[in-house]
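Quiz preparation item.
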């Protein structure tokens, strides 16, 4: 089935170039030139992925991203000329799955779109249940934390926590390997499936946001522990 991409870019030349390239890759593309139109299109269509500029008229990209994340778990890739570490941290912190700085290569952009959709498809579809498994494959449990594989959510005691695609994948990685310590490079490799270029800030932002959602006291985490000088692991398992 063709994947439907929402392209939100106010520069009409860039918009049409990217749209044309994606359509050559057999994607369907709907376009918006401002934030308000983007939100309307999200309500009208079943969007599989959003390419989102930050500097938009009417409603800026971060506001659009926040509204997307309040209701949807689809991949969101930011494309922006604002390429400082702070801008990237803000975008990732608000729930973006990736950040592509302008000017960018169309080949690289298409590759990242394919990778994001592949990851979202892989993690959104629950694994087929195995008849001999004594533990259900549709959820993972650690102490008072439950990861629901079907709904992309976590349950912390009686509280439901909405997760972004990357947050879900990171938490699943820890919960399926409860005794293993992961370096930041390993986390990046497993989750982003790309070469690690010292992107420590990307990992730091995602871990911080995940802790803010699942930890009672993020400054004293019980679920995601920091192993100083090495990386992170699940609790005290």
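Solution:
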């Amino acid at each position: 089935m063709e994947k439907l991409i929402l392209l939100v870019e106010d520069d009409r030349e860039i918009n049409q170039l990217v749209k044309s390239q994606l359509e050559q890759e057999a994607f369907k593309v709907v376009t918006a030139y401002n934030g308000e139109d983007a939100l309307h299109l999200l309500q009208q269509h079943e969007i599989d992925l959003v390419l989102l500029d930050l500097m938009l008229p009417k409603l800026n990209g971060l506001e659009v991203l926040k509204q997307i994340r309040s209701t949807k778990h689809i991949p969101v890739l930011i494309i922006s000329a604002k390429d400082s570490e702070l801008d990237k941290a803000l975008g990732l912190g608000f729930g973006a799955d990736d950040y592509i700085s302008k000017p960018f290569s169309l080949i690289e952009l298409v590759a990242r779109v394919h990778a994001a959709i592949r990851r979202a498809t892989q993690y959104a579809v629950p694994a087929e249940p195995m008849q001999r498994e004594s533990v259900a494959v549709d959820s993972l449990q650690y102490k008072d934390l439950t990861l629901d594989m079907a709904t992309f959510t976590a349950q912390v005691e009686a509280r439901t926590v909405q997760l972004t695609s990357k947050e879900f994948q990171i938490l699943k990685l820890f919960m399926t390997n409860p005794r293993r310590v992961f370096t930041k490079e390993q986390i990046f490799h497993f989750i982003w499936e790309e070469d690690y270029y010292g992107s420590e800030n990307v990992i730091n932002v995602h871990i911080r946001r995940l802790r803010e959602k699942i930890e009672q006291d993020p400054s004293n985490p019980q679920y995601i522990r920091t192993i100083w000088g090495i990386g992170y692991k699940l609790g005290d398992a």
